[in-house]
Amino acid sequence: MTDTALNLLVNELRQPAERRLWIVDENIPPQLLAPQTGTQVVGNRFDLIRAMREQGWNAELSDFDLGKLPDASIEQIIYRVSKEKAVVHHLINEAARLLGPNGKLILIGDKGEGIKTYARKAQQRLGGAKAEQKQGSVWRCELSVAQPADAPLDDQNYAQMRELDLKDAGQYLSKPGLFGWNKIDRGSAFLVENLAEMLDRPLPVEGSILDLGCGFGYLALNACAISAELTCTDNNAAALIACRANLEARGYTHAQVVASDAGDTLQQRFDTILCNPPFHAGFGVEGDLTDRFLQQTQRLLTPNGTACFVVNLHIPLERKAQGLFAQIHCHADNGHFKLIQLSKPKG
């Protein structure tokens, strides 16, 4: 988030309100200001919501599921627009239901993120006035409710889980709100193709297994036996929902799906850890996200276990793993991704 957008957001939240809903996503830093009376927070990131709860905010983790909130029960909604259009459209549609008479929707975002288009669509959906303020490339758009339109914005049926038939990759349940929700990640496919050789045993894998950063569960579903002692974990609410649905559909009755920040809520140690970390747009290569995944892998891997990572070639995973693991091996690379084996955790 730019400093301008952050300042606009903080200034907005400092204004008194009695029935305010603040919708947060991965663009929002976890520490902004002291908890505000009358403000309810909903977000889809476990680490962010946990941090806000610890600060004293009234914060709920969900896949932007606002169905529990009654119609016309909110006076003001503040939302720094998300990266995915389906999410934004879903939340504008919900604003039309939740905002009472004279209610306000405050949208904040950069011009390059489509804020002008979203504001225009929100005005059409809510049927009221629109007021805009510009600071550099960042806009604050205030929309009022008058006569909401009957036709909702196209949110790709955001809340609905749907079956994806991905040709030779099989069928999976997924939904918008999850990064790469409608495709198979090429890095994950590369890891599955080479996993038997990396582990020196045939698939499916038995024993205690952790899918660290599971997404909708592709690695677990393609690598793990139904009888395995399987745990899947992710930071994103949509991923947790989709992974749980896929495991249940495939008969993984003993598997568990757990919310965590790179596995930090887990206590059990695992013989096998599979990981395709979320080093996509919006996450830094040299940032502490890489370190968090590696540190938790060191903590969670059994002394004789093996962790199998797939990362982009430019991610310095081997260097960052030094000091954490006695054995670090690059098994293969295909010009885009590399497969890294980690074993013998130190300490």
From TrEMBL:
Domain Methyltransferase small N-terminal per the UniProt entry, residue ranges: 25-143
UniProt cross-references to InterPro entries, sorted A to Z: DNA_methylase_N6_adenine_CS, Mtase_sm_N, RsmC/RlmG, SAM-dependent_MTases_sf, Small_mtfrase_dom
One Pfam family recorded for the sequence: MTS_N
Domain of life per record: Bacteria
CDD domains per UniProt: AdoMet_MTases
Keywords for this protein: Cytoplasm, Methyltransferase, rRNA processing, S-adenosyl-L-methionine, Transferase
Every Methyltransferase small domain range: 173-340
GO molecular function: nucleic acid binding; rRNA (guanine-N2-)-methyltransferase activity
Protein name: 16S rRNA m(2)G 1207 methyltransferase
